[in-house]
């Protein structure tokens, strides 16, 4: 361009401008703005055609427009896509007019980059479509109410939430469908919209088409100052399921707290994801740990007795690996005071959708007393089984039946254990047994009191033997009779010894009588004869007296021999 004014207008314009030959489409001139915008040098531009700054798919359309404009010669504007030197595609608005440039038919073109404008328009369009979709298909109900809290607008979500079309609410008061018990609170909170731009209403119940009450949560925004709105915009959502779930959770929490307080068990909740365990207060009361309501999984393992730890851990890992939902075990656990308690532990494993354990809830029960009782029971059982005295146990029926006998009773009675179990204890008696002793036993059973008697029992072969019987009732914790325990000692040897003593006493009594009566006569004669001999001087008389003396001596000797034989 030679004209200075036109050159300045062309060359210094902030808008890219170029001139091209309408017959060859070659660039004839470009300004600085075009060079800066497109990234080509002026020489590069002048060696190019206008097709080279356009996507190939647009060229055919461009040629048609140019030919049409050459024929009409009119000024035109249009929107095209151009390619910069760096390959970026921009959208431009073209203003073009037919001119004569240095004797050539040409067109001068102004190209304004409208890419950002188009992007903004597209974003706005997407935003509008998104908003419409949210209002139309969103889960939240959007409404606009006026100063009197009457509905001006209700989104289509009302059909899904309340079962009615939006038009049903238009002009109706928003408070008309709120539960009477919630109305006062909602009205009190709603008037705060005139003080604050945004308010959050407490959950309230709202009646649907079928008369059911739905729990609704609403957030309101005062947009009366917005000309397009001029109302209060409310976003409401149905939270009925959430309220139900919250109540279930609350009930479970209350139930958990009640159980925790009511039971002596140590309740625990193990989270495998974050390696933590939450405990109820029994960890202090039972296990003597203070301020240990939250621990790690590792801490629990560290308190298990070294002799039990490997076994317990292996069993737990097998349970988790197998996908089982139940686990239980017994082990010794170290308490806060350093002592160990026997624990019966059981848990329920929670699995995720992949079957992986993520949580386990359970309870530890202190079974130390039970273990000690079991140990004593084993000792007592050993004593009972190995006792030399016969032991017989019956049930608590009105007419007791044998439920247990030890080996000593089997040996004593001659019956097998199978022959005795299920029988009445009378199997050991017969008609010759002391009826008074049996009656005493029956009365003791009736009165549920202990008793001791001596009886003559009979073996399976019918041989009698003496027994000393002690009978004791066993009561349950509530005082109810549970069973009878009878301990029987064979006292036959004692009674044989007593018989021998009685026989000896009888013999001694006979000897005593013989000594006091039979032996006394010859002894008295001997004494008298000795006295006569001492005073007799007649030889014939002395011989006669000696004859009588010998006879009395022989008689006394016979008596002494008899006594000796009896002892």
Automatic annotation (TrEMBL):
Signal peptide from the UniProt entry? none
Q: Which domain of life is it from?
A: Bacteria
The segment(s) forming the PAC domain are 200-251, 327-379, 449-503
Q: Does the keyword Transferase apply?
A: yes
Q: Supply the InterPro entries for this chain.
A: HisK_dim/P_sf, PAC, PAS, PAS-assoc_C, PAS-like_dom_sf, PAS_fold_3, Sensor_kinase/Photoreceptor
Q: Which SUPFAM superfamilies match?
A: Homodimeric domain of signal transducing histidine kinase (SSF47384), PYP-like sensor domain (PAS domain) (SSF55785)
Q: What Enzyme Commission number(s) apply to this enzyme?
A: 2.7.13.3
UniProt keyword GTP-binding, yes or no: no
Name the chain's protein. Answer: histidine kinase
Q: Which organism is it from?
A: Pedobacter polaris
